[in-house]
Write a structure and sequence with these properties.
By secondary structure, the protein is an alpha+beta fold. It contains three helices and three strands. A three-stranded antiparallel beta sheet has the order 1-2-3, with helices on one face. Strand 2 and strand 3 form a beta hairpin.
C-alpha cells in the first residue's frame, strides 16, 4: 500500500486526465461505502462496483471513506482463453 500512497501524491500522476463521474454519482458511491461499514486493514479501500463497471479507490477509515479516484473497468473471466 505504500506504493499507492506514493502514486497518489505524485505530481505526474495528478496531472493526468482521468474519466471523472458527476459529483452526484461520486457522493452516492461514497455514501454507499460509508453506510455499509466497509473496512480495510490500511488507510485505503478498493471497491469494485459490478453494476456500474467502476473501480473506486477511497482513503480514510471505516464509515469515513473519501473517494480518491474512480475508473471504468470491465468484469469478466480472469482467463479468457480457457
Amino acid at each position: 500500500m505504500k506504493f499507492l500512497s506514493r502514486l497518489f501524491r505524485s505530481k505526474e500522476y495528478n496531472k493526468k486526465n482521468t474519466r471523472a463521474d458527476s459529483v452526484k454519482n461520486n457522493s452516492n458511491t461514497t455514501n454507499y461505502v460509508n453506510l455499509n461499514n466497509f473496512s480495510s486493514a490500511t488507510n485505503y479501500l478498493i471497491w469494485v462496483d459490478l453494476k456500474k463497471f467502476k473501480v473506486n479507490i477511497f482513503d480514510g477509515s471505516t464509515n469515513k471513506w473519501n473517494l480518491v479516484h474512480s475508473y471504468l473497468c470491465t468484469i469478466g473471466n480472469a482467463c479468457p482463453t480457457e
